Amino acid sequence: MKVWITGATGLCGRAVTKLLSDSYDVVPTAFSRAEGNIFKVDITSKEDVKAFFEKHNPDAVVHLAAERKPDICENKKDVTDNLNIEATRFLAEQCKQNDCWFLYLSTDYVFDGTKPPYLPTSEPNPLNYYGESKLKGEIETLKANDKAAVLRVPVLYGEVEELGESAVTTIFNLLKKQEEAKVDHWATRFPTLVDDIAKVIAKMLSGKPSGTFHYSGETALTKYETALLMGELMNVSTDKLIAEPNQTGTALRPKNAQLDTASLKAAGFYVEPSEPKDVLAAILRPHL
What is the mean pLDDT of residues 263-270? Predict the structure, then answer.
């Protein structure tokens, strides 16, 4: 099976490309960071996408490319729309026309965080434009392609090239500075390892399901609690960090958008999620 992976140079894309390459004929693409064996494709260009389908004829597309930073999405809505909505819709349409399975990676930010845990059938109500754009991407995907699947996940972490690449590992920058700083202790998050997501996607590829599914880590942590855990694991003082009990940031974020994973389990695609306390030290050590 030939699998086209968009966003292959991103945090999740690297993990998915690495794992799937063991079992599938993987064709990884990116745009700004394409190099080596990564093909350069502008997925916002219909001509580029059509040409890629004609040349490589994939059996499945795992669509991971996205504008994912909420504050950027709020300020660059046109750019966000082109990538998160329009490109997604066209990819879904092309997959339908080419009898190619399509998987769209989405987010827990489609929910407002007031009534967790959320089922795939729960009513979405995004609080920021990132969540809104990803929800629109979901709608366009399933409207254009009735055989496509949507996989919603929460905040991701994993082996990073630099700490700011993940909203989880970037917290370690605060610890390294050893300066007084307020850290969010308001929103509950469920950090999810990209290696685990890769395993879930591998299982989904074998079954090619349609519809919407949820996958999530099970450990509930605020950013402040994550910082304390990192300090403990890396033997770095957290004395100068201050727990901030109120919401921070330009874009509104859900307080607790925990995802219910029962349907993924029932379908046989579930993978037991890693515990942050078991894997964070190895991820952070190269950046100490």
Answer: 98
